[in-house]
Amino acid sequence: MRDAQDCLIVIDVQNDFCPGGALAVTGGDEIVPGINALMEEFPAVVLTQDWHPAGHSSFASQHPGAAPMSLTEMPYGPQVLWPDHCVQGTPGSAFHEGLRTDGDLIIRKGFRPAIDSYSAFFENDHATPTGLEGYLRSRGLTRLTLVGLATDFCVNYSAVDAARLGFDVTVRMDLCRAIDLEGSLAAAEAGMREAGVTLA
Ligand code: VGL
Ligand code: ZN
User: Could you tell me the EC number(s) of this protein (predicted)?
Assistant: First the structure.
């Protein structure tokens, strides 16, 4: 069993990131049973949900001539342009139907039209907070275990931000799956290790 300061954070296990979804991650649905089982062990469970308004600025469809998965420059830095995904209230934005969703908190991110948010802690300007840090600190949850989708984007950004904020962070790599755009998985692994994240 875990201690009172342990929290499981389940990142973006939503239909659009699972096979058949708009931004499907290979094997994204395979991790659901293992995540459900792990929830039993934790005294605190938080789930995140990618939650974009229609026409979000991270969608390639909003940038004439831009191909999905191409890179653009936003006022806050480089941004991959994604297929339309996780539009608020659509079936694609719902959690995978097999996922237990009876956790303590569901935190939504990416709802500001002009800015994307990979991390569960800060939007992609690395400055606008989601509020998750305050929630965890006020509950005394200092040891975080991260699982979910996608390893190289939202899990990676969340893990690195959490480590920088001083949380003790472990990523269960066996319960994550990656998009792996041009070496992004290897880069994410290196970046997480560098930030002091334990990859288990
Ligand atoms: C994600 C790309 C765009 C993720 C979210 O959950 O990793 N990736 N939006
Ligand atoms: Zn997104």
Answer: 3.5.1.19
